[in-house]
Amino acid sequence: MIAENRRARAHLDIPLIAIVYALSLFGIYAVAVATYSTSSSSSASLLSHIAESSSAWRQALFVVISPLVLSFMISVPLHWFKRQARLIFWSATGLITVVWVFNRAQGVKQWLDILWGFTIQPTEFAKLAIILMLAKELSSGDKPMSNRRSVFRILLIVGVPSIVIILSGETGSFFVIAFLFVFMLWFAKADFKVFLIMLALLVFLILLVYGYVVITGSTDYRVLRIVSFLNPSEYSASAYQQTNSKIAIGSGGLTGKGAFVDGAWYQLNYVPADWTDFIFATIGEAWGFVGCTAVLAAFALMIWRMLYLARYTRDPFGMLIIIGIAGMFLFHVIQNIGMTTGLLPITGIPLPFLSYGGSNLVTNMACVGMVLNVTRNRSLAGSFATPQQDVSFRPYTGEYT
Predict the structure, then answer these.
(1) Better pLDDT: 331 or 99
(2) pTM for the full model?
């Protein structure tokens, strides 16, 4: 009990911060390598390469301001997030709806241009809002989804933003939401039968949508990504990016070709978008199997650390926040690396902290800030369970023991 109480103490989790910033700093390096061009000198310093790459220095700028995001998320009382979860959720849902409606006329559905070439992607912020709202709803009763009203509310939380996101063309973000919902349901107090029903329903809906589009002969790029994955030889044009990604990763061998090498695939832009969604292709080519393994180990350690922190969080709301965020990162890592290595279809999901993208990085840092908020405020009176309560949790049944 003494050891358990020590693990459940309130603290600012330094190991998690260290892992996140190690990945973020390496992400700047990887983006600079991916955007290395023939106009640059291979003998220049790393800072020069970063300065010469607009994507790299912008990524560095977001990393520099990220402590402000962390500090803000940590400083806001956790009970405020719980009270305002509904407002945050509907505000985020309203924002992605407005952006979708506004951008339809311009032919761009997923982001908004702001100043000096910077863009924002509201869907990234909506993911955290959905996690907060689901955590509140799933922790509000002894048995979530045990009655029709609870089922309706929870499906509304997942369904409304998912519909807008699908209409916006961001199928990948829909998969993220579906996965983190099932992941949170797994660790909540929902009945195991309910979990299986929700899982089966999500799989059925995904197959129904894609089955209908394929049968009707749609040329939608999202469908072509699926069919090209299943039959790359027949749909070689659609499979071009993924095929080249596999070649680039394989060319790295055991230790890679190195960074800022003239004639490397990343310098020749052999893999489209290799500084964003396909950053892992650059990592594989530049640092080889060793570099890929190190990145995978860092992500595994980060997600394990979050699950460890959730395990010793007594408050169900805080615990489910950490679970939802860990589930989101887990899916991002599996899907992104899976699509760059040809194991999964392309869905346009970035690799957390490594892929170029300000909205994604800020949202990821905000999510980490929420995790730190939970762990830092564990012992606040009125927000969490008393130290005498046992925290053992069984994910299958959702029962406290």
Answers:
(1) 331
(2) 0.87
